[in-house]
Write a structure and sequence with these properties.
heterodimer, A: alpha/beta, six-stranded mixed beta sheet, four-stranded mixed beta sheet, 20 helices, B: mainly alpha
Amino acid sequence: MRATKRKFIAVASATLVAVSGTISLNSASAAITPSFCPRFTGTLTVLSTVILEKPDGLVEQEIADKFMKACPKTKIKFIGVPANDLVTKLTAMAIGGNVPDMYASDAVNTVKMQALGIPLELRTALGQDYIDGFAKENVGEMTIGGKIYSAPWFSIPTAILYRTDLFAKAGVKPPKTFEEFITVCKALTKDTDGDGKIDQYGWAMVGTDNGSGQGRFNTIARNMGAVDVGKDSSGKWVTQIDSPGWKAALKLYKDAVDVGCVPPGQFQTGYPEASVQIGKGQAAMMITGPHTIGVALTANPAAKGKLAGAPIPSVSGVPATTSLNQSGYAIARKSTHRAAAIAYLKFLLNKENQLRINDVTYRIPSRLDAQADPQVNSEMSLGFVKAGEGKVFSNPQIPWYNSIATLSSPAYQAAIKGDKTIDQIAKEQAEKARKVIADNG
Amino acid sequence: MTSRREEILSSMSLFQHAKFSSGGNMKSAFKKRESRSGYFFTLPTLLIVFSLIIYPLGYAIFISTQKTNLISEWEFVGARYYTELLTDAEFLNSLKISLTFAFFVVVGNFVVGLLLAVILNQNLKFATSFKIILMLPWLLPEVVVALIWKWLFNPTYGLINYILNTIGLIDSDVSWFDSSTSALSGVIFVAIWKGYPIVMIMMLAGMKNIPAERYEAAAIDGATRIKQFRHITLPGLRPIFLVTCILETAWWFKHFTVIWLMTSGGPAGATKVVSIDIYQQAFGNFNFGKAAAESVIILSILLSASYFYSRAIRDDNE
């Protein structure tokens, strides 16, 4: 009996110790789990374009790792997709009914996905106070009919990225007109080591037949006074693809190649190749956003402090125009992990993480608190910040915009090849654009 | 002997007939049971054929009559896309490029494959090692092949320009894919490099099946090696040649990967084969109906081609 009693006391004491231990452990873990962590236990799937880029992807992974360390119950799994293939991949996923919990979304993609009923409305999900913390122009591009379908993460306003050292050596300044652009481009093209071969070119032209080339060309065309599609005074969709401005943009591409100030193989020079050419000093300027600074420095760290931005020239009577080219994240309406997605989104967009991605990649944060930080206006990215503060062109919010945007790349390739006249090319592409408008507009 | 066997079989048949004719119901019950089990045994194959071939084909034809985003928009447009396509200069040009590409690749594969098969059939030393080395391009994934050649042809850091520069054949970097002709020739060259091994192996297998006695008899009759090749090897390879031709034509006519990765259909559409056009219609313009209509047209072309090939094979066998 006594033995049984002793045994009972021993078991009871052990149980008490174990229970109290568990309680103290639980309370300890509750104390160290930050309040922003979701209750969700499982994996959040995120479709990202940034994750594939270097150094940008390393920062995104670093932020996700920080989140997972703070909230160990939630795992984040990235699906990488090249930015130029985002719409294709996402459309295929939407058709297959397997859209991830969160997906990268730019302004064009936001419209497309909203038309398919894919994204969650974020004004309600994030709260108006939180929405007020975004820069207005950023959130505006993600808003359709007063509803917000993507949370902007950063913008990369298009401007001229140039090598200050090479410009100084050549004794030229960033061009203010398109005539100057060609003159400067020629002045920067030279044989620097005297072996009889050109080894430095003026313009790292992105001449590939993809979104990277199309976006850059369309920005130049806008600064020449032509939009690919827009509404006229009566509210009808019209194209200016056969206007003098668009033709002038085609001529600029052709002239630059003809005078030999573009590195050979421009049709195979995509965004990554052109960024490396700038980093390594094989080319002195490029039409691009501030994110190229990070890529160029990865290719050649010695270029640090030798890069700067300047606005793209514009023709007389047309204000210098840029595009924000922003990207953010949307949450799938059908995601069963909404709360976790919202928690991660807010973590990604906190000031510390916004400044972290800006520090490494020079992408301009979308949140007002981060934008106000002096770090954002660093010497190398200041030109891009200024460009973004000027006239910003936002693509029209039409799900079929991609069908128009893609008309530019075969056009500039044909203009460079020279098999057809610029007038012929512009006429043919304008006819296609008008057909797209007639079919959809 | 044969007549005795026939007699036995005939008497058995008479016996069976007598047995069952005494009960007509029994016979029909047996036949029904037999036909049911026949259906039962063919059902798995029918299901597989239906779900993997008939349904997707039928669905593609259905989509080709719709203006659709495959999710929320479905509007019947009938044969509109077909009529549009058959008068669309750009689509017809893509078809022309596909035909040119497929023609040169198939011919190139046959020339290179046959030549190498003849060499390998000579009982050379290390023939097995050569076979393995020559098969390597076929074993490499198309993506890898396209990227390797893209880098080799790159004007600024490609090995081809570097070598030509070093040996003094060129004095400035050549942009290999900047003109229509060179871009198309480039992708044809890479496709031949990737595709000749399968033709080589098929031809080699065919050559091994030609009886050696024919060559011996021809040699005794004084036929030269070239005459032997023309009058024994080539006719002996004809059935394999035709089958390989069907497979190769269908494969390269709808080819996508190598061209897309090397030129994306450029410059300015010079290498835009019809499969790239289909992809861009579907995932660039999100016009899935038109893309499906293009696919159905390609299917019809390839079906017609394979019909003529198979007739040629049948005539050959007869």
